[in-house]
């Protein structure tokens, strides 16, 4: 557990060290996932959105600006598919002399869920982008870097957590997996969620969790079972298509004198395709919403947005692609598939460079249709348009954004992540969002404050936030293949009139494109 200044030092050290792990042909950017960086998008990270890639041998000191975050976040590379191996936890403690809004745990344990590909991740990325098909799936998932006992390769290195009977442990879970929402479960034990995305939640006791890529979750585990060995395990939730169906494990080992079982108990999981299990769990999260941790959900909305999230197809010359119907798979937000510019959006905005992006990213779908229709939707609708466009918000705008999943090509969940902000998740459901029927059921009392939210398959999710952080902020699906296919967009939040309401100037060492 580190103070902010030590963390900053470690991160700076990390940048220097990273030079050593970066393949020589590669350039990376790093992103502190979930740190809001008030008025300072300059070290936010995503390539060609807020900065140019850091070339090999180059040095760029990223400044982390913490504000109201408290709990677990993480950092990762935000360039191509490098985040597969370049990531770590970032833990923010309560201010000195203050305590957690839950009993002090005996020990705190970061649990990083990741995935392992037998191939070179960069080649896998280039291959699927070239062929137009789905990417290869991972070969295993990882807990703290290890696939666990169900894989023959490294049983001796399986992560082990020693616990003492009666004590409470705080597990800080990070889902750094590339392409899957994950179920996580501990045999014979319940867990109690106390926070997500560096904001505290009301206690939620459950025998499993569902966690999106990008999301973090803080769980209390009480060692209250018969002393033995138990598996904690994780496997995918997948609503369709090809996926990695393996299970990664780690071991909870009780201290004491007993004969451990030859094989620890393995938890039983919800079915892989149980959208209900994923969605039920997620919709039970609630903010603490008390005097010390109040909610401040916007009630008087100035900007009402509805963004469709779609998988798309585009024909290839001579039917040469390997996606469905020999076409190329793409993805879009409001039918716009994002084309990254060669000069980053932030630089172009700050220096008023014309011709890099347009400002016409639509507030609503241009062509409403039955988004979640189960019967075949005409393929013409599945052709997206290219765009390098931004949606501009005034400073202090109060925004309601409804994400609407579509069944174009195939419905699937989308873990949506917004940079620069936390947002309140005020509602969600299946089918098409209905502006008459649904808003009266919003939770404006204790909605969870999050940074990544899984929009359910063929359903919708409504979020609210106040645009009080001026800058250029990326919003994207956290499934890596979807963002590679173009499922992302950019908000520009204008400066306000006040001195503290303007974006700060760039540091002197911003990388050049
Ligand atoms: C887990 O929680 C459920 C529901 O609250 C309860 O019925 C069950 O006994 C608990 N199990 C353990 C092992 O604590
Ligand atoms: C995983 O998929 C493989 C190949 O499709 C299949 O043989 C195997 O039974 C599946 N395993 C589980 C646990 O579903
Ligand atoms: C999940 O898969 C099972 C077996 O493959 C199938 O019977 C069931 O209908 C599927 N459920 C959903 C919700 O798709
Ligand atoms: C999800 O929640 C609904 C309503 O609370 C319940 O009827 C259903 O059984 C739950 N499904 C699962 C898989 O937990
Ligand atoms: C709601 O916001 C508008 C500006 O968007 C403002 O004119 C109006 O006074 C506000 N109403 C309330 C009740 O705060
Ligand atoms: C498509 O096929 C034509 C005729 O066989 C060929 O001349 C052309 O080069 C092909 N184009 C691509 C992109 O493969
Ligand atoms: C939209 O599609 C859903 C699912 O196929 C269907 O139940 C519903 O009736 C359709 N709505 C309209 C207005 O056609
Ligand atoms: C998306 O835009 C393309 C190009 O303008 C159009 O052909 C297609 O029908 C649009 N699809 C939707 C769902 O609006
Ligand atoms: C979209 O952009 C890609 C390059 O990123 C280009 O190959 C393609 O022709 C463009 N398609 C349309 C419909 O504009
Ligand atoms: C923005 O909102 C803050 C907090 O409500 C307020 O103090 C500030 O005056 C507002 N600024 C503008 C320009 O609306
Ligand atoms: C939206 O909901 C209202 C109220 O329940 C209902 O009257 C209306 O038909 C719904 N609209 C659509 C397009 O389903
Ligand atoms: Cu997605």
Any overview of this molecule?
- By secondary structure, the chain is mainly beta.
- It has a domain at 303-501: Cupredoxins -  blue copper proteins (Immunoglobulin-like, Sandwich).
- 10% of the residues lie in helices and 33% in strands.
- The chain has helices at residues 4-21, 121-131, 275-283, 345-350, 480-484, and strands at residues 30-33, 71-77, 87-92, 107-116, 140-143, 160-163, 168-175, 181-186, 191-196, 199-206, 208-211, 216-222, 229-237, 248-254, 303-314, 328-333, 336-338, 385-387, 390-393, 397-405, 414-418, 423-430, 449-450, 452-455, 459-467, 471-477, 488-493.
- The longest helix is centred in the first third of the chain and has 18 residues, at 4-21.
- The radius of gyration is 22 Å and the shape is globular.
- One 2-acetamido-2-deoxy-beta-D-glucopyranose binds at residues 370, 372-375.
- The site of one 2-acetamido-2-deoxy-beta-D-glucopyranose (NAG) has 5 residues, from loops.
Short overview:
Helices cover 10% and strands 33% of the residues. The protein has 513 residues and is mainly β. The chain has a domain at 303-501: Sandwich (Immunoglobulin-like).
Largest sheet: 6 strands, mixed
Fraction of helical residues: under 10%
CATH architecture of the domain at 303-501: Sandwich
Trace the largest sheet across and list its strands.
5-4-7-12-9-10
Q: What is the tally of helical segments?
A: 5
Integer average pLDDT: 89
User: Which cofactors or ions or other ligands sit in this model?
Assistant: 2-acetamido-2-deoxy-beta-D-glucopyranose, copper (II) ion
Low-confidence stretches: 1-28
| Main CATH class of the domain at 303-501 | Mainly Beta
**DSSP E strands, number:** 27
Distance between the termini: 36 Å
